[in-house]
Amino acid sequence: MEKRDIKSLTMEELTLEMKAMGLPSFRAKQIYQWLHEKLADSFDEMTNLSKDMRERLKETYVLTALKQVEVKISKIDGTRKYLFSLPDGNIIESVWMKYKHGNSVCISSQVGCRMGCRFCASTLDGLERNLLPSEMLDQIYQIQKETGERVSNVVVMGSGEPMDNYDNLIRFIHLLSGEGGLNISQRNITVSTCGIVPGIQKLAKEGLSITLALSLHAPNDEVRKNLMPIANKYKLKDVLAACHEYFLTTGRRLTFEYSLVSGVNDNLEEARALADLIKDQQGHVNLIPVNPIKERDFVQSDQAAIQAFKNLLEKNGINVTIRREMGRDINGACGQLRKSFLEQA
Prior knowledge:
Layout: E1 4-5, H1 11-20, H2 25-36, H3 51-60, E2 61-62, E3 67-73, E4 80-85, E5 91-99, E6 102-107, E7 110-112, E8 127-130, H4 133-147, E9 153-156, H5 166-177, E10 189-193, H6 197-204, E11 211-215, H7 221-227, H8 236-250, E12 254-260, H9 268-278, E13 283-289, H10 303-315, E14 319-322, H11 336-344
Parallel strand pairs: 1-2, 6-9, 9-10, 10-11, 11-12, 12-13, 13-14
Antiparallel strand pairs: 3-4, 4-5, 5-6, 7-8
Helix pairs in contact: 1-2, 4-5, 6-8, 9-10
């Protein structure tokens, strides 16, 4: 019999499992607390359970615990970039960032990615597999234990396309935001997508209050296709229609991520086109100076071009910020540290 992944079970499911094992329901609450509040890495840590009961749990369940392979700490801003080893030996990465409003963790949702965005290192070796809810959660748990500080914001914007791992993503959100665990507010959870229309439409109906971030990166289909292969499947008008539907259904304002690449998508003509494109979207634009990767010849826009782009958007009534660069000295961009580690292995 294949062992079940106990850290991916909801409280209700765990209660039913304990009942099936002939155990009282309060045991489920104890175990759930060990998993999601005390952040136990093994059944042996669950000291208020009998040795016999711990052995029974070992026989029936797998307790997913990631192993830290490497951590790099930025000398610039204290950002921490982690490499974690999964139980099957695959490697993923996560980032811890300290802000005035609290600590934010950016997690991966897949091992690798199949979306092929040309400015992203995560996708260079393709998709290996989806992450389980427990593997997504444990990135946060291990970082919180290592730093000794509470995580208040979670961004699913690391390696992988969350909508390509939809069911595990939804279960992860419920486990992370539910009672009995870290209980992080759904309003402090952001999910980023490159624009998978059916996934956005489905997410709108889940009854969640998370923030949806769209990787936009271009104001028209032609430029977007050069940067993001997904644009060949879903046209911008359909992606934005799904985003607007998400806003109307949830009342949650969207974030539009726009990576500025010198000579590709950063001129004022494109800024005007972007302003016109999203003027009715009730969204916020997050301008991202692209973090160059050695496998591509993309260059970051200079500060004058970035500021001019921002100013033009603001003049056209668009709410916009420039993302603060974090961890540039430690391969801070998605997929960079994992890629360099695999090349050296």
